[in-house]
Each structure stands twice: as C-alpha cells, then as structure tokens.
Amino acid sequence: MKKIIFIDDSPLDHFILKRILKRYKLAYEVNCTENGEEAIKFLEKHKNESDSLPDVILLDLYMPNFDGWECLEKIQQVCLTLAKPIKIYILSSFINPEDIQRAKQYDCVKSFIFKPITKVVLERLINEETRNIL
Question: For residue 66, what is the enclosing H or E element?
Fold first, then answer.
C-alpha cells in the first residue's frame, strides 16, 4: 500500500482527499497534517526506515506561519538522507506562473497541480514516474 503525507492547512482539503480515497477504494494510506514542521520531524525520525516513509508528499504552498516554500526547502534537504525516494507534488489553488517556475528549481518536486484534487489526478500523480511540472 502506498503512503501519502498531505500537508495543507485546510481541513476541507484533508476531508476531500480522504473521501476520494475511501469512495473509490484506492489503496493509499494517508496522513494529513496542517503543519509542515511536523511532517519534516517525521521524515527525520524515520529516515532510515523505508517501510515507514511515505511514497508521496502532497504539499500546499500557501499556509500561515510555515509556508509551503519553507517546508519544501527543509524537505529537499531531508530527502537527500532518506532510505527511499519520495515524490513531492506542489498543490495550489492559484495559477501563478512564478510559483510554477520556482517549483522547477527543486529536484524533489515531480509536478505542480491545481486544487481541488480529484480521483483521476490523484491516481495519475501517485503512479507517475517522470518529472512533469506544468
């Protein structure tokens, strides 16, 4: 079963993701957090345990306090020490060409997608093997 960490300050987006997974019986274990620092601590704690690490991180850019860019900086540093590679997807409600260009600077980012997330998008992203930033 693939594992997902979803970092987003919106409880509604957490609900939507969980609902999609449940409704379509998608075999993904999801852990939602509103706090990027919490996710980074988890990655650092389990960096040598490939079975504990997520396969995918879905990261919202615009969050209060510790925003997605700050979180991404720290995740990129941690990713270099992890027991397995993790796919990171940037999520945003806003179509901002500057954000898309900025995301391309991060080797760990696989794609930039726009909310709301759907079943089709979720399946495509999780199963995607190539770097494809829109």
Answer: none
> Would you list the domain boundaries of the chain?
2-127
pTM of the model: 0.89
Distance of CA 52 to the CA centre of its chain: 16
Which residue, 133, 123, 124, is CA-closest to 23? 123
Contacts of 58 (CB under 8 A, 6+ apart): 4, 5, 6, 7, 8, 17, 89, 91, 117
Query: Residues 51-83: pLDDT tens digits?
Result: 999 999 999 998 888 889 999 999 999 999 999
Amino acid making up residue 16: I
Residues with Cβ < 8 Å from 59, sequence gap 6 or more?
A: 7, 8, 36, 68, 71, 72, 75, 88, 89, 90, 91
**What CATH superfamily is the domain 2-127?**
Response regulator (3.40.50.2300)
